[in-house]
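Internal tracking record. Fields below are filled automatically when a chain is submitted to the structure queue. Please do not edit lines marked as system-generated. If the sequence contains nonstandard residues, flag them in the REMARKS field before resubmitting.
Queue: standard
Priority: normal
Entity type: single polypeptide chain
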Amino acid sequence: MTSFAPDSIVLNRKLPLWYQVSQSLRASILGRSPQDPLRLPTEEQLAGHYGVSVLTMRQALKELEEEGLITRHRRRGTFIEPDAQRGAPVRLLGSVDAIVAQQSGMVTELLEHGSGPVPAELAGFFPDLEQAATYHRLRCDEKTGEPTNHARNWVRPELADRIDAEDLTRWPMTKVLRDVVGVDISRITDTVEARLADPETSRLLQVPLLSPILHYTGVTYDQRGRVLDVVVIHYRGDRFSFTVTLDAH
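SYSTEM-GENERATED OUTPUT FOLLOWS
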């Protein structure tokens, strides 16, 4: 037996058990480090871990095998495919230009824009505002047309008055604020979390419900330390990874 230990999950009895187990295992496989072993525990051990039958576990593993994430060998066991890696990395290199460059090769559709209350979980970034301008965009791969992420921005209303919505189909909000609106950006704080796709994200990104996604929150500040924009982006978990480069000098 290897030291591979997928996270425990609370199973929802309204969804197929094999599907939920396969998505949990999938997230663990895609989120593993290169040093982790490739061999998985036995079907019986995995079934015990998740509290499901061996038959359910086999169905979950079959799904991952068909996706190319694992291979199963009689008497030898089940192994993670070494090339089962996420696709194009999103690199946070510490510059505004890097963030702008990241969106190259993407086709962007502006789904909606307007104004609305700041969500409770983001209210701390805008202590002086009750309403903010909102923008919701969907980005797709330029070559394949495949959805890659969808983003929601909350922007200070006085800045939104100077934003042409059409510009947001060509450039990231960061570039629009800096180069079109003329804001002097001081810094951007990035937070990345692993989550499961909710119904809206599942529909927009064309991924199964509860499949792993990357939940990114970016907060843009001006020179006075005031928050100008908060963006929440949901990335397909099977297409992106995040690499952060820190300069030690």
